[in-house]
Design goal:
This protein is about 30% helix and about 35% strand. It has about 70 residues and is α+β, with helices and mostly antiparallel strands. A hairpin with a 3-residue loop joins strand 1 and strand 2.
């Protein structure tokens, strides 16, 4: 299983994240870390769905079993 590194920061109100595999992709979330993890996965799924619909390229790792690795 490949790992996708999510660069994560704890903010005053929650968390923020980015991923080098998805240029320009940034998310922020107010809430606990467990909810943040779910939000990040939903955001990546949405990104991939849109790329597929628009026939845009996206990292092939998202077509495999992958694991999100959150690095603070």
């Amino acid at each position: 299983m490949e790992q996708v590194i999510i660069s994560t920061s704890k903010t005053e109100n929650g968390y923020s994240a980015s991923c080098e595999l998805i240029p320009g992709w940034v998310v922020s979330f107010t809430g606990n870390f467990s909810e943040f993890v779910n939000y990040v996965q939903e955001s990546i799924d949405f990104y991939v769905d849109c790329a597929q619909i628009d026939h845009d390229p996206y990292p092939a790792v998202f077509d495999t079993n992958y694991q999100l690795l959150f690095k603070m």
